[in-house]
Amino acid sequence: AGGLRAFRNNFTVDSTIDGVLNGGRKTSVIRDISESSTTPRVSLSWKPSSTLNIYAQAAKGYRMGQANVAAAGIPPTYDSDFLWNYEVGVKSAPADGLNLSVALFTIDWEDIQVGLRTPQRFNYTGNAGKARRRGAELTLDWQATPNLQWMTSAAWTDATLREDVDNLPQVSGVLGVKKGDRLPGQARFSMSNSMTYNWSIGANRDVFLRLDHQYVGKSYNTFTQTGALVMGDYNAFGAGMGVILGATEVTLRASNLGDTNGRMNSFFSSGQPPTAQYLSPRTLSLQVSRRFGD
Predict the structure, then answer these.
(1) What's the predicted TM-score (pTM) here?
(2) What is the mean pLDDT of each run of 10 residues along the chain (294 residues)?
(3) Which partner for 127 in 69, 111, 219, 253 could form a disulfide, CB atoms 3.0-4.6 Å apart?
(4) Residue 76 burial (CB < 10 Å; 0-12/13-18/19+)?
(5) Nearest in space to 68 (alpha carbons), one of 35, 31, 102
(6) How many CB atoms lie within 10 A of CB 94?
(7) What angle do CA 114, 117, 123 make, to 5 degrees?
(8) Beta-carbon neighbour count of residue 199 at 10 Å?
């Protein structure tokens, strides 16, 4: 199977900035940007048996370049970036109640878009050259008994630059990036697990218990770890129980049982101290839902 998407983008931006941080002068820029691109996709699959499917696919991705805010030292625009995603995988059901998927992928990036910062502490978007992201993903869904289900997903990723860019001003203040630097926000390993046990208490009446776990590996908000803000490197656990009464479901859930102070994201803001987004603290919630139209 295959496909091709072709498109053309046009837009105009009028940006004006003034003030002391802009060197005491007014900057006003009008930008007209127009470009075209195509994104092909090809996929192949082979099903040697009813429980085994082997596939391969290749697809091109495109993210349009746009305009930055007009300010001293900031390039008026940044370029579009492109990528090719190559993936091979297997989806199988090796035993009754067991479904397993394994995939290997490589993503080659050109002119990858990244967040940057001027010496005057203005944030903007620029391009950092070539990058490559390689990895493996595993998904397991096991119905161990008629009442017990276990699900696991895991991913390993190696995402790095493929060339030096000596004059790239990172948001941490470090100038330049090197071949082999890890891409911002890319954890090497992540995993999630869940276990659900349910049983019937009567006609159209069921009770369920659920436990879940998530691990997010360590990553950094810039290429160079020196001066970067750390994200991830935490485990989070949750639990829930509920009852299904026909079309109505009532669920009591406890999120982040260990009250983990996991840092989900970190930012260097323009002219402000660094900020971070954390996991919500331990939370109890009650949800009632109903299906209509059954």
Answers:
(1) 0.85
(2) 87 73 63 84 96 97 85 83 97 96 97 88 89 97 96 97 92 90 96 97 93 97 91 97 94 96 88 88 96 79
(3) 111
(4) middle
(5) 31
(6) 9
(7) 80
(8) 11
